[in-house]
Amino acid sequence: MYELSDWQQRARDQGFIKHALIQGRRVSAQSGATFAAINPATGEVLAQVAACGEAEVNQAVRSARQAYEAGVWSRRTPVERKQVLLRLAELILANRSELALLDSLNMGKPVMDAWNIDVPGAAGVFRWYAESLDKLYDEVAPTAQNVLATITREALGVVAAVVPWNFPLDMAAWKLAPALAAGNSVVLKPAEQSPFSALRLAELAIEAGLPEGVLNVVPGFGESAGKALGLHMDVDCLAFTGSTEVGKYFMGYSAQSNLKQVWLECGGKSANLVFADCQNLDLAAEKAAFGIFFNQGEVCSANSRLLVQRSIHDEFVERLLAKARDWMPGDPLDPSSRAGAIVDAGQTARVMEFIRGTEAEGASLACGGRQLSFNGSDNFISPTVFTGVSPSSRLAREEVFGPVLAVMPFDSEDEAVHVANDSVYGLAASLWSDDLNRAHRVARRLKAGTVSVNTVDALDVTTPFGGGKQSGFGRDLSLHSFDKYTHLKTTWFQLRS
Ligand code: NAD
Is there an atom of ligand 1 within 6 Å of 249 CB? Predict the structure, then answer.
């Protein structure tokens, strides 16, 4: 299934879930409201989807709470939960083409990226948390002899997850897998741009044996469904991935309601530092291009600022531009396309506005900068590189969330670190150097949740992912993400001596 015509045929035959999934049932919005799910690569309306509001959120939270209190999932043994989540991982892979297609049609990414990366990634995350469950032990505190004090991890209850559109299936999986593994019930709100894979995933979870009501999905807008979850008095934890602006709203919703725990994975403006002592400049250039152009640049940890030591700057930019040409967008269903469509017309306009503004500010457009049309859609942007970007310009400071790279020269290590850290964000950073001492020194000084050395945007289920400053707090992936979905209970047994 790698031919364009195969994917086109599948796309014609593909059905879409148009309802919320609550208590294991497909549910319409009580108000009858719907929103159009649009394929950004063609402009075609794929389906009208239930636009959930407060009524459906209340219903979904009730369903999650009842399932939690009934213990149908929360009190199952770790091994039983493990078996269900392992079956879900298998079902994700068994439905690999459909899930890949749903994300590609819904938000414009190349279908083969979804097939090669996103779908196996989601299955791997469910498998990894499932496998962890019967290997985790709790603690006994070093108290006096006449005391036994246990420290146990307990599920929180009802977790709400609000996620973005850039990796619809994976962002859902990163929240759901550990939250469910820990025994919680979950209400998931996918982004309004990309509801389909989350809805299909929830049906697969029920097929895998997850009891009805444990996982509920409420498609809809942020200002209605998302806000209702944020303000809900019976949600214990709100796990969010999205923009910094909306992340701040969730802190406010929590303060205005029940002080639910809020965990934020927000935006970024990650710096990639290339030092003159880097021996493999060709690889560094290839990865610098990948770091900004993969997924149309719609990546929170995209390496959107490239800092190059002045002595190799011009040579490096030449290599980079050669690599950038490989990332021309095309039909997302064409297996030869390395980039696809920008998620919608609004985001396309925003990226183009950044490009025009940066040109007006006097930076040099080294390549790209053009809006392109395919199959009747204008939501395509050529890979864009600006050189001579001032560290104080908008492009150097604000998240674009598109295929636009800001290149800046630097002279000294101190200057590079200073510019890299001079950001409101602190999600990720990369550095390239073959000097072991410099690599360690600079890695320590960079303020970021992940520092990749001699690669970009390193990421694995085994390692925590998240940031500091206005990129948020708390970590997805790894065993550390259980910190978000469990709380510590101390039980003190006073013994008679
Ligand atoms: P967004 O913040 O606009 O939306 C994210 C989610 O929040 C969506 O489900 C949306 O419906 C909901 N939402 C929007 N307004 C809301 C409101 N007023 N109240 C409640 N919920 C609301 O972000 P986006 O455009 O979907 O995604 C892009 C952003 O996500 C970028 O800033 C990117 O950096 C960030 N992101 C971060 C990570 C990470 O792990 N740090 C990963 C992926 C994306």
Answer: yes
- Cβ pair 303, 347 in contact under 8 A: no
SS (HEC) of the chain:
CCCHHHHHHHHHHCCCCCCEEECCEEECCCCCCEEEEECCCCCCEEEEEECCCHHHHHHHHHHHHHHHHHCCCCCCCHHHHHHHHHHHHHHHHHCHHHHHHHHHHHHCCCHHHHHHHHHHHHHHHHHHHHHHHHHCCCEECCCCCCEEEEEEEEECCEEEEECCCCCHHHHHHHHHHHHHHCCCEEEEECCCCCCHHHHHHHHHHHHCCCCCCCEEECCCCHHHHHHHHHHCCCCCEEEEECCHHHHHHHHHHHHHCCCCEEEEECCCCCEEEECCCCCCHHHHHHHHHHHHHHHHHCCCCCCCEEEEEHHHHHHHHHHHHHHHHHHCECCCCCCCCCECCCCCHHHHHHHHHHHHHHHHCCCEEEECCCEEEECCEEEEECCEEEECCCCCCHHHHCCCCCCEEEEEEECCHHHHHHHHHCCCEECEEEEECCCHHHHHHHHHHCCCCEEEECCCCCCCCCCCECCEECCEECCECCHHHHHHHEEEEEEEEECCC
Ligand 1 lined by 227 (C-beta under 6 Å) = yes
User: Looking at ligand 1, which residue's alpha carbon is closest to its atom 10?
Assistant: 222
Residue 303 scores a pLDDT above 70: yes
Residue 1 has pLDDT above 70, yes or no: no
Residue 437: pLDDT over 70: yes
> Is residue 195 lining ligand 1, measured as CB closer than 6 Å?
no
**How confident is the model over 329-372, as pLDDT tens digits?**
999 999 999 999 999 999 999 999 999 999 999 999 999 999 99
Is residue 265 part of the annotated active site? The answer reads: yes
Quote the CA–CA distance of 304 and 398 in Å, as a whole number. 10
Domains of the chain: 4-267 (3.40.605.10), 271-468 (3.40.309.10)
The tens digit of pLDDT for each residue in 253-266 reads 999 999 999 999 99
> Of 56, 265, 298, 413, which is the active-site residue?
265
Q: What is the pTM of this model?
A: 0.97
Is 1 buried (19+), middle (13-18) or exposed (0-12) by CB count in 10 A?
middle
Ligand 1, residues 241, 292, 484: which to mutate, most atoms within 8 A of Cβ?
Answer: 241
Q: Give the pLDDT of residue 485.
A: 98
